[in-house]
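Now for a chain:

_____
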Amino acid sequence: MNSPLISRLRLSVLDQSVALAGRAQNESIRETLALAQWCEALGYHRFWVSEHHSHPTIVGSAPEVLMAAIAARTSRIRIGSAGVMLPHYAPLKVAEQFRVLDALAPGRIDLGVGRAPGSDFRTAQLLNPDTNASAHFPQQVMALQAWTLEGESGGPGLPPGHPGHGVHAYPHGPTAPAIWMLGSSDYGAELAAHLGLPYAFAYFITEGQGAAQALALYRSGFRASPALAEPLATLCVWALAADTEAEARHLFKSRERFRMDRNTGRLGPLLPPDEAARPYSPAEQAQLDQLRANALVGSGAQVADGLRRLAAAHGVDELVVITWAHDPAARRRSYELLAREFDLG
């Protein structure tokens, strides 16, 4: 899709509570809270948090708890999960949790759901011993839709014959959580289209591979639902801005090291850029060169230009930006520079 540059691009945030070398992991959770307040003040539209389990790099394991704390510290920004890994849980319990969150922050809650485990196979089994749980994902999402939309927000609940008929997810109120489908493949795009849900493609996971096809499938197959009349899609992208390109490239060394180590199964806290270098094999160096060439890393103006072009290429008017940096101040500065470039305030 060759679209003109989006004149007014809306920016949001996905934070993963990344563990930092030399710091206690619980500091990363508190840093997420501080970042949410910072991004609200800067004018960002949404602030999403992720769910991972037994992951030594990404320590945000309970998005619904973190969202409650963010709700208590903010007043405007939308707050969401990106996402709840639904096969681990009973949809009724998830609906109840997010109904409570909506009561705490009415009209500001996004319930992003995904099918991936957010963990290794063994950890996933400990969360839910049913090894076939992901096969029931479409039915889980439909039950979640019914329970989150029932009551004052206008939904009829689950139909007669369903085991959940007559069972309600409380508390009800005039607003309801907005369910988003998250994915990095065609599966999530097609399911989101079929159920009439907004769709977020994890561009940062695939380095963009499959994004155009997934969005095309989503738009062509979209069926209107009570919650959404027309397709609504976004991309979750990784980006890092600094006052100069040289500074941004230096800060990016932490992410580079993580990506190269992850490819060999080595996971740990994010290293400071001055300690991130290690010898790379020729194959790793080729991967690293490609990562550097494609990365949205540079000055605020450079990164903003890349984001606008990416949004135009995929026909979206909102991007969700993920930024890792070992220094929390550098991460806050990155979001500040982008907010300035897009005049978010």
Observations:
- The mean pLDDT is 94.
- Residues 19 and 285 are 25 Å apart (CA to CA).
- Strands lie at 10-15, 46-49, 78-85, 109-114, 178-183, 199-201, 233-242, 296-299, 318-322.
- The longest strand covers residues 233-242.
